[in-house]
What we know:
By secondary structure, this protein is an alpha+beta fold. It is built from seven helices and eleven strands. It has helices at 25-35, 92-103, 111-125, 153-156, 166-174, 194-197, 232-262; strands at 2-7, 16-21, 44-49, 55-59, 65-70, 128-135, 142-149, 160-162, 177-180, 204-211, 214-224. The chain has an eleven-stranded mixed β-sheet, with helices on both faces. Strand 1 (2-7) and strand 2 form a beta hairpin. The N and C termini lie far apart (55 Å).
Amino acid sequence: MKFEIFFPSTDGSKELIVREEGANWFSALENALKGGGMGHLINNILCDIKEDGSIHVTETINGKKFLIREFDPNRVAGHEKEIGRTLKKRDPNEVLATVFEEVLDGFDKPEQEGLNFFLDLAMKHIPADSGSIAIAPLAARELTFVACRGPKSDGVKGLKIPMGTGIAGFSALNNVLIAVSDVQKDPRFFKDISEKLGYPTKSIVASPILYNNLTFGMMELINKKESSAFDEDDIHILRFVSEKLGEYLNMIWETRNNNLEDE
Length: 263
């Protein structure tokens, strides 16, 4: 498929439209950013799916904005207005202040209890209908859901999906923290396992679980309560909790390996 990516001007310079091939809009955006030397901007993004099928992307660190849509040779390119979101002028450290105090309590817990703790902590500060953690052994190509909360949690726990499948698998495979406002509006995006579970999914935020460039899996929250979409505060919180979960899982992994070497 062919997409066009619109880069609005932020400093009076000329607006830019780039056309890229891609299996989906995200791969087209990724290719365009890498081609322009901006690949790092893909790591923490808010994606808003509009009624016309266009995708407005807001990068949450620098506030960069992009518009992506399928290429239409008959479309007349013109000045685009109101792309993306206006981010809150708020210090992320203020958002994380309470989480800083609470997250350390998880490190003394056994593995399953610890996984549940980190998921519950994320859902406490980011109210959502459902949440899950999926992990993969190092170099594995499959994610296994190991901690779940929500109406379909019994059907999700133990479920396995290939790395790269759905938004969750994409987040883990590509080390991208991504929030999508309404997945149902965009059939071109990655298929979600909610159809298999009979659980309607609207908004999703998914974060890779990383430690020292090692990916242990991903954490996702589904259907934010009392809002149509997750926001940049939610991304800051989920990124922090996921990073600490990665540190915790690395500690568990090292302890387990050390015990095996001592036997």
